[in-house]
Design brief:
The chain has 640 residues and is α+β, with helices and mostly antiparallel strands. It contains 21 helices and 23 strands. The protein has a nine-stranded mixed beta sheet, with helices on one face. Strands 16-15-18-17-20-19 form a six-stranded mixed beta sheet. Strands 10-11-14-12-13 form a five-stranded mixed beta sheet, sandwiched between helices. The protein starts with 6 loop residues before the first strand and ends in a 6-residue tail after the last helix. The chain binds adenosine-5'-triphosphate. The site of adenosine-5'-triphosphate has 16 residues, from helix 2. Its main location: cytoplasm. Belongs to the heat shock protein 90 family.
């Protein structure tokens, strides 16, 4: 089929799903369609301005960049026009028929029959162009890419059901007109004052003029009629370049929604004019909810880079460290060259200074929330932590220069609160440390219950010593960088010998010495039975209830980390654990006098310890058989 003929094409399956979801979820907030389409128009103009830096001919004698909104009560249409970069035929097919965001499939898979949940999800996703279908049952897009001849214009049309059509048209002016054919019952939008009010509410801060035809008094009909003169409806200057004092919170919030397409308000923001060696404006936001693709570390950052008010690029990842990839906003540099590329950004000293400065600002913003006496701000920090805490933890390893500051912002579950809620800081912990205690104790485990019930916790429970409970995937990695805080070492309760004796009283110390001699022979025998499975066997003061537990040597990887690495398919060096035995446990005591079944008991105690710390047995069937034999013995029935 010739390209000039009208072609019908199907939407990508994800688009169909998104459209359905969106129309249902956003029905109560319909007017945002205009903000979304104006944002796209403003992006298209930004892109033109940037490409025209190199190719001035793209301006095509039409250098006055602007957005125009018009409407027709007769045809029941609203049209959003821009003289931006426009779209070629292929671009229209690619951009208006598919969703390019990575992770969309996973996002859509999370949809459920619960409308409330879906509403929240769509907020995180951002709806963009497709939001036009909330109020329109047909959308016509006419566009021509800057630089292409007039004969290369395109018309794209769809009712938002399953497919769209594209055809070539003649179009003299570059840029895009998006015409919404309103659904039945949406005629409210077809007045000058309503559209103006929506533009002022949502798009006042857009740095380009948004124009509409002025209304004039018509003497003949004695009504207001659309005239012929254009007026600019918004303030049309860059919000981030204005003085803080002149910007309302509402304007900050709307600007956030404009740049992110997020339907929620931001959690917090920081706006600064930085002067000195490098000069730049920054307006940085923390969202209220994590985006659906937060875990994709390859996801580009959320910072728009401008140079002297000219948009340069989206997602300038060099401007923010990866662990702050949830931060959205604008950085406008006065020093970078206008023709800056991603490659130049990587090497630029200015960029390095901007990144460092911005990182500091974000950390300060978080500290202000975390340390505030105002309960509402503290609550915001809790929200932040629940959404982004795990990502912030990456910073402990990624940003050595700010490690101490980040560590101060961390929140953990703790035995002090006896709950899995992560709300205890390292400073809280230190303030509660016992006089004789020199280390900050923590446990890592697969989940909260496993951690809480681990044999490693017994001595700490007995002594009333607080233990932080770490169960996030990133924790083991983070801990390899966070070995000390405020001159206190962090120590795993499952690793090393922990100076536990320092915490014991005189009586316990004496008892321990006696136990060491008492169990000397038993331990030697156990070592012979277990052979290469263990590094050592020793008497412990760690246990009160369990007979045995496994400990990783101080310098080895923890058992939990070894398991995680294995689960991720990585090769783990063979690090043998230390078996610790509880001298007060009846089974361990009876071992001293056991002869015939000594090997079986030893193997059983070792396997139990593996299971208790969440490990997998090398030969589970042998364990079950052994245990059953011993159970049979204990009930007086002979095993084979
Ligand atoms: N007015 C326009 N001029 C030129 N291209 C446009 C215009 N509107 C949309 N597009 C193109 O269509 C693409 C898809 O738009 P859409 O709003 O769905 O998503 P987006 O803007 O890329 O993402 P998000 O909405 O999350 O910011 C845009 O990235 C852009 O390439």
């Amino acid at each position: 089929m010739a390209e000039s003929e009208k072609q019908t094409m199907g939407f990508q399956a994800e688009v169909k799903q998104l459209l359905q979801l969106m129309i249902h979820s956003l029905y109560s907030n319909k007017e945002i369609f205009l903000r979304e389409l104006i944002s796209n128009a403003s992006d298209a103009i930004d892109r033109l301005r940037y490409e025209a830096l190199d190719k001035p001919e793209l301006q095509e004698h039409d250098p006055d960049l602007k957005i125009r909104i018009s409407f027709s009560p007769e045809n029941r249409t609203i049209t959003i026009s821009d003289n931006g970069i426009g779209m070629s035929r292929d671009e229209a097919i690619a951009h208006l028929g598919t969703i390019a965001k990575s992770g969309t499939k996973e996002f859509l898979a999370r949809l459920s029959s619960d409308q409330k949940k879906n509403d929240a999800l769509i907020g995180q996703f951002g709806v963009g162009f497709y939001s036009g279908f909330i109020v329109a049952d047909k959308i016509t897009v006419e566009s021509r890419r800057a630089g292409l001849p007039a004969s290369e214009g395109i018309r794209w049309e769809s009712t938002g059901e399953g497919d769209f059509t594209v055809e070539k048209i003649d179009r003299a002016q570059r840029g895009t007109d998006i015409t919404l054919h309103l659904r039945e019952g949406e005629d409210d939008f077809l007045t000058n004052w309503r559209l103006k009010a929506i533009i002022r509410k949502y798009s006042d801060h857009v740095s380009l003029p948004i124009q509409m035809l002025k209304e004039e008094w018509d003497n003949e009909s004695k009504t207001m009629k659309t005239g012929t003169e254009l007026e600019t409806v918004n303030q049309a200057n860059a919000l981030w370049a204005r003085n803080k004092a002149d910007i309302t919170d509402e304007q900050y919030r709307e600007f956030y929604k404009h740049i992110t397409h997020d339907l929620n308000d931001p959690l917090s923001w920081t706006h600064n004019k930085v002067e000195g060696r490098t000069e730049y404006n920054q307006l940085l936001y923390i969202p209220k909810e994590a985006p659906f693709d937060l875990w994709d570390r390859n996801k580009r950052g959320g910072i728009k880079l401008y140079v002297k008010r000219v948009f340069i690029m989206d997602d300038a990842e060099q401007l923010m460290p990866v662990y702050l990839r949830f931060v959205r906003g604008v950085i406008d540099s006065n020093d970078l060259p206008l023709n800056v590329s991603r490659e130049i950004l990587q090497e630029s000293r200015d960029v390095k200074m901007i990144r460092e400065g911005s990182t500091r600002r974000v950390l300060t913003m978080l500290e202000e929330l975390a340390q505030s006496d105002d309960p509402a701000k503290k609550e915001l920090y809790t929200t932040f932590w629940n959404q982004f805490g795990q990502v912030l933890k990456e910073g402990v390893g990624e940003d050595p220069g700010n490690k101490e500051r980040i560590a101060k912002l961390l929140r953990f579950a703790s035995t002090h609160n006896d709950s899995d809620v992560q709300n205890v800081s390292l400073d809280d912990y230190i303030s509660r440390m016992k006089d004789s205690q020199v280390r900050i104790f923590y446990i890592t485990a697969e989940n909260y219950t496993a951690a809480k019930n681990s044999p490693h916790m017994e001595i700490f429970r007995k002594k009333g010593i607080e233990v932080l409970i770490l169960t996030d995937r990133v924790d083991e990695w983070m801990l390899s960088f966070l070995t000390e805080y405020n001159e206190k070492n962090l120590a795993s309760v499952a690793q090393g010998d922990l100076d536990l004796l320092k915490l014991a009283d005189e009586e316990e110390k004496k008892q321990n010495e006696e136990n060491q001699t008492d169990f000397k022979d038993t331990i030697e025998k156990m070592k012979t039975v277990l052979g290469k499975k263990v590094k050592d066997v020793r008497v412990t003061v760690r246990l009160t209830d369990s007979p045995t537990c496994l400990i990783a040597d101080e310098k080895d990887l923890s058992g939990n980390l070894q398991r995680m690495l294995k689960a991720a398919g990585q090769k783990v060096p063979n690090m043998k654990p230390i078996l610790e035995i509880n001298p007060n446990h009846p089974i361990v005591q009876s071992l001293k006098y056991e002869d015939k079944h000594f090997d079986d008991w030893t193997n059983l105690l070792f396997d139990q310890a593996v299971l208790a710390e969440g490990g997998a047995l090398a030969d589970p069937a042998a364990f079950v058989k052994l245990m059953n034999n011993m159970l049979l013995d204990s009930v007086g029935k002979k095993s084979d």
